[in-house]
Amino acid sequence: MKTLEEMIIPIASRPASAxxxxxxxxxxxxxxxxHGTIFGGKLMAYIDDVATIAATKHSRRPVVxxxxxxxxxxxxxxKGDAVSLSAFVTWSHKTSMEVFVRxxxxxxxxxxxxxxxxxxxxxxxxxxxxxxxxxxxxIAESDEERLLFDTAPDRKEARRIRRxxxxxxxxxxxxxxxxxxxxxxxxxxxxxxxxxxSAWGVEW
Length: 204
What we know:
Layout (H helix, E strand, L loop, with lengths): L3 H4 L6 E2 L5 E6 L13 H20 L3 E11 L8 E12 L2 E11 L6 E13 L12 E2 L3 H31 L4 H7 L20
Parallel strand pairs: 1-7
Antiparallel strand pairs: 2-4, 3-6, 4-5, 5-6
């Protein structure tokens, strides 16, 4: 007789290209700062939006942003330019997915294009109980996909270390103002969030 584990059918892996999502937008005056370039926060919102869609396509489950691992701004995006964001799932582990986003800016009058930003984000898929649930593996096919897939475990380890540091700081500082705490007492305050579990509080 088969055990319960043997009866569970694993989720089939999916090609990275199946999650490819493209978003395009023109940079309007309200989107820009006093330098005439797009607000970093505006571009980050675009990045999170397109990455969320890619992660949902791959898992076919509701997802939450677990971390924005990196956003590197490489070239300014000016008012009147177009920005094209492409995102796809590069790697998955248990319940989490790593998504890579490339942002290309285009001068619509000259056609000149440059990669203006790159980003890695991590998402967690949620089951019907709103707890992390298993996601499909990733099949890397192109040279770019294989490069990102092969280097993903190193980025996951860097995320693990960074999350440990973040939890340490959160526990040390608690929920009160850090400057106020430093003036009132040298004794670290325990976080009120200790023991709280969600998609952000468990190992993916």
